[in-house]
Model the fold of this input.
Amino acid sequence: MAQVALEPTSRTVRLARALFATTSVLALGAVVLNLFLAAGEVEGRFGSPAGRVVNSLSFFTTQSNILVGVTTGLLAVRLDRGPVFRSLRLSGVLSIVVVGVVYHLQLRGLNELTGLSVLTDLVTHTLVPILTPLGWLLLGPRGGLDRRVVVGTVAYPTAWLAYSLVRGEVVVDRMGVAFYPYPFLDVGVIGYAPALRNVGAIALAFLVMAAAAAWADPRLPGIRR
Done:
């Protein structure tokens, strides 16, 4: 199992920073471009540019790419960071993997994309979901994934789920229909009990994935704190 010193002159450290910087630029750049595209749409469920931007920001794909973009950007600057950051970093890795898997198994091809939307779709649903776990698996940084970090990893997806349920109660589209970003949260269709069960199942799934990642972390190659 390779152990690489955390030194500025290390070739592996330079590679890690380059990969993290690339991932950050791709993720955040695609999100910004997608928000501009959303603001300029003339059709859709929300009539105002602000409404369309907020709606785009509310999707799990967008927020996960933002989380990945911020955390990898910070890693590109400095690799050794504290437990709160480690929770956010691991949460970003797991979330973007879920984004990529669910999109390619269930959602790809459902919407007809044109122009720059094809590019943002490729980056946010394919390139970033590949580069992010690849960077974590091969480069780390390793270490520090204790119980607090594992539990903290669930905070982001749980907060997003709660936000989506609350937003669905107060936000309606231009047709007066309550908006939920995904069918498994659509209280108007499936009811509160199933929606809350889905929320619990997702939170538990993230907890299990985070625990598995913490178990695998010391057994993987990469830069060690």
Summary: The chain has one domain: 11-219. The longest helix spans residues 11-39. The chain has nine helices and no strands. The CA atoms of residues 47 and 117 lie 19 Å apart.
